[in-house]
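The records we work with from here on pair a chain with its fold. Each token is a code from a learned vocabulary of local backbone shapes. A record is reproduced here so that you can trace the correspondence yourselves:

_____
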Amino acid sequence: MTIQGIALLAALFAAPALQTQELIGISWEGDILRIDPVTANATHIGSVSGIEFNSLSRDPQNRLFAVNHAAAEHPRLWRVDPVLGTVWPMHQVFLNDVRALAHSPDGKLYAIDQAGGSHSWLYELDLTVPPGSSAIKILIDEILFGTQGLTILGASFASDGTFYGWSDWLGLIEIDPLDATPTDVNGLFDGNNLIQSLAVAQDGTAIGGYENLYDVDLATGAMTLIGGPIGFGGVRGLEFLQDGPVPYCVGSLTSEFCIPTMTWTGSPSATAGSGFSVNGTKFPSNRPGLLYYSTSGPAAVAFGPGWRCVGAPIVRTQAQVSTGTAAQDCDGTLSFDFNAWIASGTDPQLTAGARVWCQYWVRDPPLNPPGQWALSDALQFDIDP
């Protein structure tokens, strides 16, 4: 069975519905968890076995990523799926012991790799390479406090661009992403290994955790026990989902060797009448396609070259043609104003409070039959009043 199939069907309908502004965790053994940041109570979403995870990060489009430890299998970057409760392989990284991942507010991905004891090296990972290939790793420098190497157990960016890390010696530190220079927040040398992952929310709330969950004061570095134990062997990666739609599942490889993804602008509303654009990007240009959706649930059903990510019954919207130029690969885009569709009254199920799962499908004749089409990943969102 493929990694994508491990425990997927069991987790799919057993997992409670995902909400926004949630704290997601991942354990060393591959348990994907929804964690209450007030009580530390954890709800199991899904599991993948045989992969050892030690990090978690969210990009600006609300996608979650982790890197596995080299002891389990060749280290690679994975999409962590908080809706289906599984992971999807993305890129090889050639870093053996990534202890922390963090996306900057402008979308740059940083990795902290431990090598040779208390020595942590900061890298930037360039993911513009084709899917399945090796990410381009750019070494910034070793994270040194004076001449002393550090063990960094977690890291996260705040919304203002400050890059925080947790050291088992210094505690909370700030890290300069340009040269890897650390600054001890409080100068107390009060680090420990009770925190092995760090997450900073958009409002500045900082949470650290491993076996238990802690509130971390970004001004003083003080940690306060929230609760625990979390269970599942503790968490090695924590990340807040931001408000808004949640991407999930994974797109298929197009004939131009890109994997289409969904984006959005605006907010879903039952009364706005317009202004929530659901977009499919990285498709071949000038190809017919459409958006389809469901209000019954997500899915992961093999479908031609990829996965159908929405459950039956499926509603299909009107056909479109991807924009873009034939001379440029992977620049085809489709866009659909879902608020206008709601306002049309075509689907009476689309009312305030309803949850929607949607995905793009586009014709791609150069692919080998059967299944001469390309699929985006999928998007989950709730309709606001």
Remarks:
- The first strand starts at residue 23 and ends at 26.
- Residues 266 and 276 are 4 Å apart (CA to CA).
